[in-house]
Write a structure and sequence with these properties.
Blueprint: E1 2-7, H1 13-22, E2 26-32, H2 36-45, E3 50-52, H3 55-59, E4 66-69, H4 76-85, E5 89-93, H5 100-112, E6 117-120, H6 127-138, E7 144-154, H7 163-179, E8 185-191, E9 201-208, E10 212-219, E11 221-233, E12 237-241, E13 249-256, H8 269-273, E14 276-282, H9 291-305, H10 313-331, E15 337-338
Parallel strand pairs: 1-2, 1-4, 2-3, 4-5, 5-6, 7-10
Antiparallel strand pairs: 7-11, 8-9, 8-15, 9-10, 11-12, 12-13, 13-14
Length: 341
């Protein structure tokens, strides 16, 4: 069994405790959190786990082989660096760091010490996201024109990073995964109403190769929880709604007819409708399962076999590059900024 330490017992940490405690391939030795009330809750449910407020106790424990970090974004770099220097495998919640140079350093340390570094871009383990990837790989939609991504909710409100780093990081990782590349540039605006200089809502446009546009709307100041994506292609279109647990994908057999064959003059609604094609709506079957369990299983398999995980350090660096460009654009009032590789 792989001995594991989990740093962070707040919003997401208990889910890691549950998954790694249930696994027959791992043993949770430590849970670390500065909040004693959180540790008390862990102790009630898992009395066999050692508890502490000091992450050094777990990181320096020679029995520990893997460290899971589910702490605020601003702490990721220092904790992950300490764990890697202690020769531990690391599962690090997204984003990998708040600076590209720090993210690259973590990747270099993982390579140097031959340790697994998995960044928790959880939605890449989502069955619907993987099904859309299959459609795009098969060319079902034809050439992709644009992708619209909306991720909103009322809270939780962060005080160390803005809504782009907290929420849009999910969608950037999805877009990179689906398109198989990184954006060339980013332009963005945002508004800060709750805490000064921390944007509660961000609206961004990413330019990908082959003239693909990706728009992002990320907000933790919204009355409606939404995780909705639209992909528009030349032959078909689809929507992916993560709030629809059983049938998240709709594939639309719709397209605009070739511009050279449409009527020269459209003066009626019926004539206008004849210039577009509307076919069936397909609801594909999607494999149901907990994405976090798949992520944890990928981490365990990577440790055992040495393979690279689906969301490794390099994928994490790519997302931070985009987030830095978005941040520069916000500071420059929406000026288009290159994504620096």
């Amino acid at each position: 069994m792989i001995p594991v330490a989990i740093l962070g017992a707040g919003h997401w940490g208990p889910n890691f405790v549950r998954n790694f405690h249930r696994s027959q391939q791992t043993q949770v030795l430590w849970v670390i959190d500065p909040d004693s009330s959180r540790l008390q809750q862990v102790q009630i449910r898992f009395p066999d786990i050692s508890l502490s407020s000091d992450p050094r106790e777990a990181i320096n424990d020679p029995r520990v082989e893997a460290v899971v970090i589910a702490t605020p974004t601003s702490t990721h770099y220092e904790l992950a660096k300490a764990a890697l220097l202690a020769r531990k495998h690391v599962l690090l919640e997204k984003p990998i760091a708040t600076r590209v140079d720090h993210a690259r350093e973590l990747c270099e340390l993982a390579d140097k010490f031959e340790r697994i570094l998995l960044v928790g871009h959880l939605f890449l383990y989502n069955g619907a996201v993987q099904r859309v990837k299959d459609f795009l790989k098969e060319g079902t939609l034809g050439r992709v024109y644009y992708i619209s991504m909306v991720r909103t909710n009322l809270g939780p409100i962060r005080i160390d990073v803005n809504a782009a780093w907290d929420l849009a990081s999910h969608d950037i990782s999805i877009a990179n995964y689906w398109l198989g590349t990184e954006p060339l540039s980013a332009s963005a605006i945002g508004g800060s109403w709750i805490n000064a200089n921390i944007q509660d809502a961000v609206f961004a446009t990413l330019r990908y190769p082959n003239e693909v546009l990706v728009t992002l709307h990320a907000s933790w100041l919204n009355p409606r929880k939404a995780r909705h994506i639209t992909v528009v292609g030349e032959r078909r279109m689809l929507t992916c709604d993560d709030m629809e647990l059983t049938e998240p994908i709709r594939l639309y057999d719709k397209q605009v007819t070739d511009s050279y064959t449409k009527p020269a003059f459209v003066d009626t609604f019926a004539s206008f409708r004849s210039s577009v094609r509307e076919g069936d709506i397909l609801i594909p079957r999607v494999t149901v399962g907990e994405p976090l369990k798949r992520e944890c299983d990928d981490f365990i398999e990577s440790i055992r076999t040495g393979k690279q995980p689906l969301t490794g350090g390099l994928e994490g660096v790519a997302v931070v590059r985009v987030l830095e460009a978005i941040q520069r654009s916000i500071r420059a009032s929406g000026r288009e900024e290159k994504v620096i590789s």
